[in-house]
């Protein structure tokens, strides 16, 4: 019986999510944009290759530290729903 290896500290932020946070007042998302942690085909291929090389079977994705806390309460809710839906689609 083999054990599944799970990376519990992984980030993925679609560019349009980061753009939204920036528009709503997030002070600095430039580091996140430079991490190659988007949902682009190139970034995903790179991610999956790294996972395979490291023997990682799954990743638990987290929006933090690019949390959906910017803008009005309604805009924050919409941002949270946007990133959650991005992870499930």
Describe this entry's structure for a reader.
- It is built from four helices and two strands.
- By secondary structure, the protein is of the alpha+beta class.
- It has one domain (6-88).
- It has a two-stranded parallel ribbon with strand order 1-2.
- The radius of gyration is 14 Å and the shape is elongated.
- The mean pLDDT is 93.
- This is Amidohydrolase.
Keywords:
single chain; 89 residues; alpha+beta; two-stranded parallel sheet; 2 strands; elongated; Amidohydrolase; Metal_Hydrolase
Give unreliable regions as ranges.
none
Rounded to the nearest angstrom, the radius of gyration is: 14 Å
Please work out how many helical segments DSSP would assign. Answer: 4
- Biggest beta sheet attributes: 2 strands, parallel
By secondary-structure content and strand pairing, the structural class works out as: alpha+beta
Distance between the termini: 31 Å
β-strand percent reads 5-15%
Question: How many separate domains make up the residues?
Answer: 1
- Helix content estimate: 40-55%
Going across the biggest sheet, name each strand in turn. Answer: 1-2
E-strand count: 2
Which overall shape is indicated by the principal axes computed on the Cα atoms?
elongated
Topology pattern, helix = H, strand = E: EHHHEH
């Amino acid at each position: 019986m083999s054990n599944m290896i799970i990376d519990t500290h992984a980030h993925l932020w679609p560019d349009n999510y980061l753009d939204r946070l920036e528009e709503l007042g997030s002070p600095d998302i430039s580091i996140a944009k430079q991490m190659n942690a988007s949902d682009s085909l190139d970034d995903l291929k790179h991610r999956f290759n790294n996972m395979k090389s490291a023997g990682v079977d799954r990743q638990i994705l987290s929006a933090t530290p690019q949390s959906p806390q910017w803008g009005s309460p309604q805009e924050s809710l919409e941002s949270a729903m946007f990133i959650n839906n991005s992870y499930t689609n």
